[in-house]
Design a protein that fits this description.
Number of strands: 0
Helix content: over 70%
Strand content: under 5%
Number of helices: 5
Radius of gyration: 13 Å
Shape: globular
Distance between the termini: 30 Å
């Protein structure tokens, strides 16, 4: 039951991201980041996509590493970085 609910939550996050991109009131990037995080931590295909993105776009890899080391970063970000590390 967990996987279908997570898939629904991920789709909801991406829909809210698109809506947030169109409405100036709603910050769409927050929902996009949350959707990518859920996708990568719950599904293998998500990890593969994020690893490929980190290999292809060096700025994305640097951004994730800097965010992981930030003093306000949640502990789950370290798990996300470990799961999607392109060198592993």
């Amino acid at each position: 039951m967990r996987k279908p609910l997570m898939a629904l939550a991920i789709v909801g996050c991406f829909v809210m991201s698109v809506v947030g991109g169109l409405l100036p009131i709603l910050q769409g990037w927050i929902f996009f980041v949350l959707g990518v995080y859920l996708l990568a931590t719950e599904f293998e295909i998500g990890r593969i996509w994020v690893k490929a993105g980190r290999r292809h776009w060096a700025f994305l890899n640097r951004w994730i590493i800097r965010a992981r080391d930030h003093k306000w970063a949640p502990s789950h970000l370290k798990e996300f970085e470990d799961l999607t590390d392109p060198t592993k």
